[in-house]
Amino acid sequence: MNQQSLRITGMEGFEVLVSCSVELPEIDFNKFFLLVTRVETMQIPNFRDQGLYIENETELVYKIKIDLSDFQSIGIIYCFGVIPIDFSQDEIKVQVFEN
Question: Is the pTM above the cut of 0.85?
Answer without folding.
Answer: no
